[in-house]
Amino acid sequence: MARILWIEGKRAESPQFVSGVRKAGYQVEMVSTGKDALERMPAVDPDLVVLNAASMRTSGRRICRLLRMETNGIPILVIADPDLDTPSTLDANIVLSLPFTTRKLLNRINPLLPGESHHLLHVGPIRLDMERKQVRCMGKLITLTPRLIQLLKYFMEHPGEALVRAALFREVWVTDYAGDTRTLDVHISWLRQAIELDPRHPKLLKTIRGVGYRLDV
Question: What DSSP string runs through 8-54?
Answer without folding.
Answer: E-TT-SS-SSHHHHHHTT-EEEEESSHHHHHHHHHHH--SEEEEEGG
